[in-house]
Amino acid sequence: MHHINFLFSRTHKVVLLVELRITRHIKNQCVKHKSITHTEITQAGFIRCLARFFYDTRIKPNNNNGNTVNEHEYFTKEHTIDDLYKLAYPQYNQAQIKLYSLPLKLILDLVMTEDALVDFNSNTKKLSAAHFDSEAFINGSRRILQLRQTVVNDARTTSKNLTNARQSLGRLLHTLQDFYSHSNWVEMGKTNINNLIGVRENIGSVAGRNQATCTNIGCTRIQKSCTLWQRIVFRTCPLVYYDCKNNILPQINNQKLLTSGYLFNQSNDNYGPLNKPKNVQKCSHGGVIDDSSNVPAIGGISKDANTLILSPHSNLHFKAVDLAIKATEQFLNNLRKDVGDKSFDRLFAINPTQAQHQAASNAVDNGQQFRFFTSSLSVSLKESDGLLTDLKNWVKKRINMIKSISNRLSSGQKNLDVPTYDLSDLGVNVKDVNNFRAAPYIIGRKKRFIDVLRHRQ
């Protein structure tokens, strides 16, 4: 990093050369890794939920009044949030759609931001229950139930300010989504979501405290020198990580016993230390920044990212993402059933009041931008392969978005359709090399590049 700072003190020509090289690295990483993050999972799951909400409350009734929307096409075609609003309100032009949907987008961005902050907040980034790490399945499930009750109670109270409910929703969705990338649910061969999460504390049989769950067999240690891009992101060189396949003990998966990866310096619900045991071979989380992956059983089982550098089970990343999106969608659909359409509408300002319109417009006029919400993200309600195709196509669009961010920073222009990925005003240090959870994030890849550009200015 000192090398980069030195170059930036040189002439503008040298700076642009370094910027170009970094940009190429980012393009290569985006194309190669194609990872889907928590914030994208949340937005994709919400779009699928919103599609059903609009179909039930506006599109299907309107079809009976002569406005025709093809049902099959509606549920198989990819939609952005603006697309859905246009179908629900065909009388609105594009400018009216953007204005009418703005309150919802700002609220969804808040939910997505709170989802992301679970990996950065000092109270939750090392809390095993917040991530279903260290086999904390009961505590993780209890956390979801408690946060869900807050959302339900607040949403049902007409006069209640819903900021806390929306923040709680983002936090619980993070934990829900982590279940699929941190546990062995996918490795068990499960192709459907765990329907017990968010319903009861006991979500399945868990491996015993002193029961081995992983083995060294199946993990290959990899050591590589660093590229410029990797040195900037990971702040460690050479890179040491593992490629693991079938390293979960067969009897664990065959008996359908839940396990998840341990890490060093984690905490329990009382914020006491919770480290990977050394007297029994438990699974690690894994990745280049997880030191516990070098303690038997070596390697890890994380599926957070589609790269071995961050996730030893990266080959299962998209299967975990698929289930996480479906779990997010089902959670939101069930929440809608429990609180009713009116309360669900109010929770997200789907049909905003004039006051909500004005507040959203004022916020934008005063400089507020989306941190994570991306107007171009589109998904369909197709299942499995179709959904994953939607998401892989979306990842390819990131390159153009990175260009937009770079151009905006260089010109000083603001574009509401391009997220900032900026959490600095919330006290978040995305450069913290000790926070291993930051690395798989989209902000772990883009935000650090943006910081470099800002430093140049």
In short:
With 457 residues, this protein is mainly alpha-helical.
Q: Which helices and strands occur, and which strands form pairs?
A:
Blueprint: H1 2-8, H2 12-33, H3 38-63, H4 71-76, H5 81-88, H6 94-117, H7 137-156, H8 163-182, E1 219-224, H9 228-234, E2 239-244, H10 250-254, E3 266-267, E4 273-274, H11 317-339, H12 341-348, H13 354-365, H14 385-396, H15 398-411, H16 442-456
Antiparallel strand pairs: 1-2, 3-4
Helix pairs in contact: 2-16, 3-5, 3-6, 3-11, 5-6, 6-8, 6-13, 7-8, 8-11, 11-12, 15-16
Helices, by number, come to 16
The average pLDDT is 84
β-sheet strand percentage? under 5%
Give the CA-CA distance, first to last residue. Answer: 17 Å
| Biggest β-sheet description | 2 strands, antiparallel
Please mark out the parts with pLDDT under 50 across 5 or more consecutive residues, or reply none: 1-32, 442-457
Number of structural units classed as domains: 1
Tags for this entry?
457 residues, mainly alpha, two-stranded antiparallel ribbon, 16 helices, globular, disordered N terminus, disordered C terminus
Could you describe the 3D structure shown?
Helix 8 (163-182) packs antiparallel against helix 11. This protein starts with a helix and ends with a helix. The model is unreliable at 1-32 and 442-457 (pLDDT under 50). Helix content is 50%, strand content 4%. It has 457 residues and is mainly alpha-helical. The chain has one domain (33-393). The strands form two sheets. Strands 1-2 form a two-stranded antiparallel ribbon. The protein has a two-stranded antiparallel ribbon with strand order 3-4. It has helices at residues 2-8, 12-33, 38-63, 71-76, 81-88, 94-117, 137-156, 163-182, 228-234, 250-254, 317-339, 341-348, 354-365, 385-396, 398-411, 442-456; strands at residues 219-224, 239-244, 266-267, 273-274. It is built from 16 helices and four strands.
